[in-house]
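Quick one - first record:
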Amino acid sequence: MQDRRKFLKYRYRPGHARYSGNAFQPDMTDALALARDRTPAANAVDEKFWMQIKEMYTASSTLINLNNGGVSPAPRPVQEALVRFNAMCNEAPSHYMWHVLDKGREQLRAKIAELAGADADEIAINRNTTEGLETVIFGLDLKKGDEVLLTKQDYPNMINAWKQREKRDGIILKWIDLELPTEDEEYLINKYTEQISAKTKIVQVNHVINWTGHINPVRKIADAVHAKGPDVLIDGAHSFGHFVFDVPALGGDYYATSLHKWLSAPFGSGMLWIKKEKIKNVWPLFAAPEDRDVNDIRKFEHLGTRSFPIEYAIANAIDFHMMIGPEIKEARLRYLKDHWVEQVKNETGFHLNTSLDPRFSCAIANFSIEGKELDTITSTLFNTYNFHTVGINWENIHGVRVAPHVYTSIQELDAFAQAIKNIIRA
């Protein structure tokens, strides 16, 4: 359980007072303070508390979004900050963007780093996971014959980036094919390491496999990979803000994530972490005035004109995340997944393609129904019951991905479970 004094110190320290105004009403702040005196598990089932959280979002009450793994809506304080900063910039763009908001990047960097459990000099602020990972993929000095290991279950953008390097530079891609779901850590470690050779330079590891919500034992995989020599690139698109961990503790050399997913930051916000001693080895994706060998993470931020309001409002998303409490949020997300799955898992023909072991999943789950096409399931869920999900047909994964968030209500998930039962029985 989070320490109450630590929470109150965070809550009222300078720079966080914005939440004592219109964003949270007194009853909400009282509820948040009370939550710090209870275990995360106790908070996870307090429906009154979560209905107050739900009120902080503007998500539709008729179209129920269960694809938060794609992108999550921002809560009101983040939306309001984005509008406010955008209006400021439009008063005198070059002044407010470059002489006011841009001057706050170092404070924002430190704020992201604190949440990541990392050094601020290892954090670059960018737009999404793809940009972060491709900065590394295209920035590493790899030559013809060098080997890269990745899985067939990786995200398409990363696969395509590596394939482009394969065509341009003659590197060799070696493919790992995962059978999921699994709760066998040794199986996973072996799959990521058994093809490593003296020519292998880097292994790409998903922290969370987006198609199913499977969580990899990344630290154990990274340690095993490092023992054989290669670096580790971690795709963290679906982990940051989802459950509690420190990025450096994952044991990787490079990590990238999208902040507009589980952190609920503005659309088009992301973060790249590179272990300090590795920064000098990576060319920036966009040319920087510094030489590649400069060991400064800021060389990866020369994007040209960008949306400063989007960047600045990341801080408000972090504030909102911390107001709820990372451990409390994680407990709720696990509870939401378990709540709907428990109601349908024993239905004839229902197949859960995600482990319920908390080591291997959190909010995201994937299911299929015997004898039902994915398009039929997703279209019926949408057209008949107003649930937005996504059908996954990728390699050996075929099912519907379901990803609720903190604003998703138990009543909505009860209705969702009933809709699945109706589809099964139709």
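second record:
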Amino acid sequence: MGSVRAFIAVELPPTLRQVLDELTGKLRAGTPPRVVKWVPADNLHLTLKFLGQMPVEQQEELVGKLHAVAKAHAPFALTLTSLGCFPSARKPHVIWVGIAERNLDRLRALHHDVEEALVPLGYPAEERDFSPHLTLGRVSRDARGPSVRALGEVLGNHEVGELGELTVGHLALMRSDTQPGGARYTRMAHIPLAQSVVAGVEVDAPGR
């Protein structure tokens, strides 16, 4: 049946995507051309687990594992804040938006349980520490020193406060397809967390 390139993520609502798209626009305006490949707003998400090539016939069992994890976690809110880059502003490779400390322990617990649940299916737990962030752009491999340093200055001089709140109400199994214009992400499964009705309002998937 083949396989698909897949990952597990928390999706963003349209309102947050718009805020981040506006931030990206401001950064792009001050950045030398063709230095950064910016992530389209529709592709913005919070990655919990990259799976790589997932056998299609494994999807049902994998989703079942995710449902078991989701039942043990109630929805919670995260605050998007700060602008940064890996590995440093002097030599940026990845540009990202971070997450405030509030409820970060709950996100780490959810991530840990997802990791542990998928080990029996052949997906080893990540050895590196979990560093939750939303990738806004990646620096081109062809970018030259002066352009990269100019980008670092733009990032260092651009301060952001709280960008918005993200409610983690479900997990999403996502498919990634490479196309000429870049990657296209498609949701394969929507897995609600326990108690997915908060204050009488269903915590649903963005754009559902």
